[in-house]
Design goal:
By secondary structure, this protein is of the alpha/beta class. Helix 2 crosses helix 3. The chain is globular, with a radius of gyration of 17 Å. The two termini are about 25 Å apart.
Length: about 280
């Protein structure tokens, strides 16, 4: 679908008359990260999983033609949902999906039915040790090319999946090989460098997003890989500060918890959605 002049690839499954769940992926993945989850939910729910501009099979225009900021990605995703005439939905937010999703929420608060948070951080206490170094990049990106090099490296791409896990045998190496191939495409260094630098605006927005949760109290399921070194467990537990009724489930998994716990997460979602039909 053409949205804001950009070709947006998306996956869709399930009956259109069923409650809609919009699946927003993380870095450096794409809608492909939901390949195993979608079939488990599509018998009861309408699933929509887009690739952001610059990710997966969506177009990746030059940064001179498309500003790679989280504000802009959120606007494009919001316009994408509008073109699909999707106006009432539950959001599944993973990693980059959280800052993109919360921008959509604040722009269209009446459209959001419920939230499913899977290692999608909006609290400073949830930032792991590596973010101290990334903050140096935010302060002066030109002075720290080595941080961007490390962020986009093959080793980092693999570690996002297997770091901390005790079940490395459950992972498909094709996943990080494919992600690294995507990161190695032309313009990706510029695109991902722009987004890494802009990530500082997400941290600055945390208080605003937390205030929205306190004010609106949406039904919320948190399913969090507890061995994630990037977004650590206190970030999952912090949701109860603003949402006393949130369901918090700490899973024996890493950042990409779906790689290890697809069945368990699908079961949690089914139970949660049954309790909060919309």
């Amino acid at each position: 679908m053409q949205v804001d002049g950009v070709g947006i690839f998306y996956r869709e499954a399930g009956p259109g008359s069923a409650p809609t769940i919009v699946l927003l992926h993380g870095f450096p993945s794409s809608s492909r990260e939901f390949d195993t989850l979608i079939p488990l939910l599509a018998t009861k729910y309408h699933l929509i999983a887009p690739d952001y501009p610059g990710f997966g099979l969506s177009d990746a225009p030059s940064p001179t033609a498309y500003a790679y900021t989280f504000d802009h990605l959120a606007q494009t995703m919001s316009d994408f949902l509008e073109k699909l005439k999707v106006t009432h939905y539950t959001l599944y937010l993973h990693d980059y999906g959280a800052p993109i999703g919360f921008r959509i929420i604040l722009a269209h608060p009446d459209q959001v039915h419920a939230l499913i948070i899977q290692n999608g951080n909006i609290f400073k206490v949830g930032l792991g040790a590596k973010w101290t170094k990334i903050a140096e990049y935010w302060a002066d990106p030109k002075a720290h090319p080595e941080l961007l090099n490390a962020f986009l490296s093959f080793e980092a791409t693999k570690e996002r999946h297997v770091a901390g896990t005790s079940h490395a045998d459950r992972y498909d190496p094709d996943t990080w090989i494919s992600e690294y191939a995507d990161l190695s495409r032309p313009l990706q260094r510029e695109i991902q460098g722009d987004l890494l630098y802009d990530y500082r605006t997400n941290v600055a927005s945390y208080p605003k997003w937390q205030a929205w949760l306190r004010d609106h109290q949406p039904p919320t399921l948190v399913a969090w890989g507890e061995h994630d070194p990037s977004f650590i467990v206190p970030g999952a537990e912090a949701f109860t500060l603003d949402l006393p009724n949130a369901e918090i489930h700490l899973l024996d998994a890493g950042h990409f918890a779906l790689d290890e716990k697809t069945d368990e997460i699908a079961g949690l979602i089914s139970q949660f959605m049954a309790k909060h039909p919309g």
